[in-house]
Design a protein that fits this description.
The complex is a heterodimer of chains A (323) and B (286). Chain A is mainly alpha-helical and 323 residues long. In chain A, 78% of the residues lie in helices and 1% in strands. Chain A has 2 domains: 266 residues, ABC transporter involved in vitamin B12 uptake, BtuC (Orthogonal Bundle), CATH 1.10.3470; 26 residues. The model of chain B has no long low-confidence stretch (mean pLDDT 86). Classes of the chains: A mainly alpha (323), B mainly alpha (286).
Chain lengths: 323, 286
């Protein structure tokens, strides 16, 4: 009951956010957080539920951005562009999976990184196709059911709807037999294989699933900025989304969302004061790995418990001294 | 014809530089099972150290050596202070090296600014040498010779010395090596420092050819990855051969398929993954 109340209150405040959040700047940041949260949820399917760490997810994200932008640029409608972008992202995810699933662990990281670098290279160097470093600008956001999405508030609501749908699908996916068998391949791949599950195929489908939602996030990102440049495919982008997943705590549904919120807020706050976002990102990476290897949410809990137990023991020591 | 000769010379030079980059990467990966994602950043840092030493009017070769030593110290410190604490946690180690890569790249941007800095080749090696009517730039020849000498030196170190035997034993079977009394953890520090030093030396040597600029790290890291996947993790001959293969593809690709130069570069890696996942000389798949 309490949980249900909490969910309803959260939902209400999220939906009404454009009304009580004064300036457009903060509404835009909220949209950004939701877009990144979708991306982080997509990566979490691999990192958290499949035990496959991808350092190349910006490749899938960027593939959707570029295909969408390219089709719009070529004069196609929004519907075709979105459909085309999804088809392309799924195709690239399939290639991604077919190659990277030849290995596990460290090899998987290296191959996903290498593939996303190829895509980055194409975007950066094949100027005839991608306009190189200048990127592609798209002229307008789509108007689903005749609703204009030019104001930050309306676009935020649109993003929120997509985000909530993603959360719902992720929750269903997590509990579905497929989700359970996916976690089975993460923990006991040999046993799963002995039980007759096709481990390779399960992982492959997980990559497609993750790729699809990376594409969703990519398209939202494209429509949010109405601009795409090779930067979306960079290692920095892959690293940022991985940081979101890891900092929030892998495996849970809420972790990546919290992580996305944290990273986007820190990034915006930090860039208001200092220019050195990359360095801060690096320091956060090192600090999290060294001090809170299990993620921020469980890590903070552990820290609190430790502090409380220290206070208690100090308190007890003082008491025993006094008596 | 001249074009092909120039391209071939450039490819061999590039191969030599790439060997300095990837030999350390491969050894670190083979021994410690860490893909050191900071390796490109260490290469760039070495090059920038070279810039600073040369500005202090140090002799070029001394600058190369100083840079190598400085990087060896930094590498050793990274291994001792950070990676050591995370022994056995592969993912955590990868993330730490990634974080370090960002930090190093940003520090370089802070100190040496964003402008590309050309490095001057030493006085004595400017100009060209002629053999059989073909023109060879002196500096490039020197780089190839140095890379070959270092390759032979490394091979000697690994195959003919006690330290090398211990490293090879630890690459093959770290558990067993520990049992026989080899201090594998100390080897980790030595190999990491050695790899960083090689990257630093390669960085300075690449200066007069590539010049030094932000983003050099991100350009070099994928090359090291490809070479190790091609040649096989932990294999020195693999890194050697892979470096020259990539050197050729890099230079010829940029002339013949300028748009797709980057894609062509990755094709051999994809082929290798499909046909022989352990790489040319590797024992285990990645």
């Amino acid at each position: 009951m309490r949980e249900r109340c909490l969910i309803i209150v959260t939902l209400m405040s999220l939906v009404s956010l454009p009304l009580w959040m004064g300036s457009d700047y903060y509404i835009n940041i909220a949209s950004q957080i939701l877009i990144w949260a979708i991306f982080a949820l997509a990566l979490n399917v691999l990192v958290g539920w499949s035990g496959l760490v991808s350092l190349g997810h910006a490749g899938l994200f960027g593939m959707a951005c570029y295909t969408g932008a390219w089709l719009l640029e070529a004069g196609w409608g929004h519907f075709t562009a979105v459909l085309g972008a999804f088809a392309m992202t799924i195709l690239v995810s399939a290639i991604f999976g077919a190659l990277s699933l030849r290995t596990r662990g460290i090899g998987f990281i290296m191959i996903t990184l290498a593939i996303s670098q190829i895509l980055w290279g194409i975007a950066y160097r094949w100027i005839g196709l991608t306009n190189g470093d200048n990127g592609i600008i798209i002229s307008a956001r789509p108007t689903p059911f005749g609703i204009e999405m030019d104001t930050p508030g309306v676009f935020y609501i649109f993003t929120l709807i997509v985000f909530l749908l993603t959360m719902l699908i992720m929750a269903i996916f997590y509990q579905s037999p497929f989700g359970v068998s996916l976690r089975g391949t993460r923990d006991q791949s040999r046993r799963m294989s002995a039980l007759g599950f096709n481990v390779w195929l399960i992982r492959f489908f997980a990559i497609l699933f993750s790729g699809f939602f990376s594409g969703v996030a990519g398209l939202l990102f494209l429509y949010y900025h109405q601009y795409v440049s090779p930067h979306v495919l960079s290692l920095l982008n892959s690293a940022e989304v991985l940081l979101m997943v890891i900092s929030g705590g892998t495996g849970t549904l809420l972790g990546p969302v919290v992580g996305a919120g944290l990273v986007v807020v820190i990034k915006n706050v930090a860039s208001a004061y200092i220019e050195r976002w990359n360095m801060l990102l690096g320091v956060i990476f090192v600090a999290i790995v060294i001090f809170m290897p299990e993620g921020l949410v469980p890590g903070t809990q552990r820290l609190f418990r430790w502090v409380f137990s220290r206070i208690k023991s100090i308190g007890a020591a003082i008491k025993s001294e006094a008596s | 014809m001249t074009l092909y000769i120039i391209l071939t010379i450039n490819s061999i030079t590039m191969g030599g530089l790439l060997f300095l980059l990837s030999a350390g990467f491969s050894l670190i990966f083979g021994l410690m099972r860490i893909p050191n994602l900071a390796h490109g950043a260490l290469f760039m840092l070495g090059a920038y150290f070279g810039v600073t030493f040369l500005r202090m009017e140090v002799n070029f070769w001394i600058a190369v050596i100083f840079s190598g030593v400085a990087l060896a110290i930094i590498g050793g410190v990274i291994e001792r202070l950070l990676l050591r604490r995370l022994a056995g946690q592969e993912l955590a180690q990868v993330l730490v090296t990634l974080g370090l890569a960002f930090i190093i790249a940003d520090v370089c941007l802070l100190i040496w600014t964003g402008d590309p800095i050309p490095l001057n080749a030493p006085e004595s090696l400017r100009g060209v040498e002629r053999f059989f009517g073909i023109v060879f730039p002196r500096y490039r020849l020197a780089v190839v010779v140095i890379a070959l000498i270092l390759a032979i030196g490394l091979w000697f170190l690994l195959e003919r010395t006690r330290l090398g035997a211990m490293i090879r034993a630890s690459v093959d079977d770290p558990e067993m090596a520990r049992v026989t009394g080899i201090r594998v953890s100390r080897l980790f520090t030595i190999v990491f420092a050695l790899g960083a030093a090689l990257a630093g030396v390669g960085g300075v040597l690449s200066g007069p050819i590539l010049s030094v600029y932000p983003g050099l790290d991100a350009e070099m890291l994928p090359l090291a990855l490809i070479i190790v996947i091609l040649g096989g993790a932990g294999s020195l001959p693999g890194a050697f051969l892979g470096s020259f293969v990539i050197g050729f593809i890099y230079n010829f690709g940029q002339v013949f398929f300028p748009d797709l130069a980057y894609v062509v570069l990755f094709l051999p890696m994809l082929l290798m993954l499909v046909l022989r996942p352990q790489g040319l000389f590797g024992k285990d798949p990645l």
